[in-house]
Amino acid sequence: MNFSRSGGDVVKKKDFADDPIDAQRREKVKDAMLHAWSSYEKYAWGHDELQPQTKKGVDSFGGLGATLIDSLDTLYIMGLDEQFQRAREWVASSLDFNKNYDASVFETTIRVVGGLLSAYDLSGDKLFLDKAKDIADRLLPAWNTPSGIPYNIINLSHGNPHNPGWTGGNSILADSASEQLEFIALSQRTGDSKYQQKVENVILELNRTFPDDGLLPIHINPERGTTSYSTITFGAMGDSFYEYLLKAWIQGNKTAAVGHYRKMWETSMKGLLSLVRRTTPSSFAYIGEKIGSSLNDKMDELACFAPGMLALGSSGYGPDESQKFLSLAEELAWTCYNFYQSTPTKLAGENYFFNDDGQDMTVGTSWNILRPETVESLFYLWRLTGNKTYQEWGWNIFQAFEKNSRIESGYVGLKDVNTGVQDDMMQSFFLAETLKYLYLLFSPSSLIPLDEWVFNTEAHPIKIVSRNDRAVSSGRSVGQTKSYRRPRTRREGRFGNK
């Protein structure tokens, strides 16, 4: 598919004034990335993740070099060229997907396929595209079900797909319906429509019986394509389905061919409004969870992606609705920031409960594993409103990570945000997402501009391409993918690498 504008620049060609405080903070975040990356290089090179306390690597994703691949675009965007080149050499010489390993289709897609595609879009190096195609081909048999709803686990070597035993044979909503950005992009860049067809058929199947409130339970039967009685949530196992409805519309440049994604998303946002409650005494807005007709006053930190999503999608409405959703986004971001501010360490717990006893919120599960969702929303709100308050909140969160999570050999999570007791894991998404969003929060908006790039749910930026294939309806077919012409990349123009 041809780009509507020339050039695939990481930095938009326009003049900008850089705030000196922003520049200082950006350098501090870059230093954090260097510390995390060099610790990974020293103690866990080629492994999936680093255990900083014991100074060893672990293969939590089958030995696919998850942290390395997750970090490629962050290194590139920050101008860390030598580190990027060493990582590229490892991908060329050592990355092997032929492993007898039962991989999560979702995690492998968002981290590995997404990370490789983003590295390709940024650098123009075809090595990354070839590797992305290799791993995607190994994942494809997961979609071979009667309904087209994929199984969530597949053996990378043998191709045997199945679902985890604890779901009762069901597929998980977020895991089954959050591969659109990556697989559509892969079809565009290879000219092979099979990837796009698999993931678009999932959305068509769900749209066939889409409820009036647009809220789907987290369990789906892959044989029949029907939902099973289970939790409705914008947190774990539900979250990225709603995110990808909006972002697939953005990825397709908001053309008629992707209009059904926007329509489904707007339906789901009506449902989201029905889950919003406010606390006493401070009136913090939060998104509850639902099972059947009963509402549970609980919100995951994972659901803190929603303020950013609402802000990003608000501009597609008319003026009144746009302001309503932007205001809600700002309210929810304030709540998420207070997830952090309400603890002794100033780092958020995994989830929160809301009570009518005048306490506003209490930590439920009290660990912090370096998650990015709140910082992600602050990035979008700052980009879309220009309000520097969001930068201040992000800086406070960054300082709390520096104080509580930085050790000599990397970054660790906390077992308990109340006591500050540390764990022994540097999650790959800390480098892929948390540090990238913090860096962009203190960079001019001309770096990875939102009208040219869309971020997947692992914060990998993918180039926006207009979709001119025919609009899909209730049928199972999708339009033909046209040839894709990769834009030129102007590496010397990257901000912060003059």
Automatic annotation (TrEMBL):
GO terms for cellular component: Golgi membrane. The keyword Signal does not apply. Keywords: Calcium, Coiled coil, Disulfide bond, Glycoprotein, Glycosidase, Golgi apparatus, Hydrolase, Magnesium, Manganese, Membrane, Metal-binding, Signal-anchor, Transmembrane, Transmembrane helix. InterPro entries: 6hp_glycosidase-like_sf, Glyco_hydro_47, Glycosyl_Hydrolase_47, Seven-hairpin_glycosidases. It is a single-pass type II membrane protein; Single-pass membrane protein. It is found in: Endomembrane system; Golgi apparatus membrane. It is an enzyme of class 3 (hydrolase). One of its GO terms (biological process) is carbohydrate metabolic process. It catalyses: N(4)-(alpha-D-Man-(1->2)-alpha-D-Man-(1->2)-alpha-D-Man-(1->3)-[alpha-D-Man-(1->2)-alpha-D-Man-(1->3)-[alpha-D-Man-(1->2)-alpha-D-Man-(1->6)]-alpha-D-Man-(1->6)]-beta-D-Man-(1->4)-beta-D-GlcNAc-(1->4)-beta-D-GlcNAc)-L-asparaginyl-[protein] (N-glucan mannose isomer 9A1,2,3B1,2,3) + 4 H2O = N(4)-(alpha-D-Man-(1->3)-[alpha-D-Man-(1->3)-[alpha-D-Man-(1->6)]-alpha-D-Man-(1->6)]-beta-D-Man-(1->4)-beta-D-GlcNAc-(1->4)-beta-D-GlcNAc)-L-asparaginyl-[protein] (N-glucan mannose isomer 5A1,2) + 4 beta-D-mannose; N(4)-(alpha-D-Man-(1->2)-alpha-D-Man-(1->2)-alpha-D-Man-(1->3)-[alpha-D-Man-(1->3)-[alpha-D-Man-(1->2)-alpha-D-Man-(1->6)]-alpha-D-Man-(1->6)]-beta-D-Man-(1->4)-beta-D-GlcNAc-(1->4)-beta-D-GlcNAc)-L-asparaginyl-[protein] (N-glucan mannose isomer 8A1,2,3B1,3) + 3 H2O = N(4)-(alpha-D-Man-(1->3)-[alpha-D-Man-(1->3)-[alpha-D-Man-(1->6)]-alpha-D-Man-(1->6)]-beta-D-Man-(1->4)-beta-D-GlcNAc-(1->4)-beta-D-GlcNAc)-L-asparaginyl-[protein] (N-glucan mannose isomer 5A1,2) + 3 beta-D-mannose. It comes from the Eukaryota. Its main location: membrane. Transmembrane segments: none annotated. Pathway: Protein modification; protein glycosylation. GO terms for molecular function: calcium ion binding; mannosyl-oligosaccharide 1,2-alpha-mannosidase activity. This is alpha-1,2-Mannosidase. It comes from Nicotiana tabacum (Common tobacco).
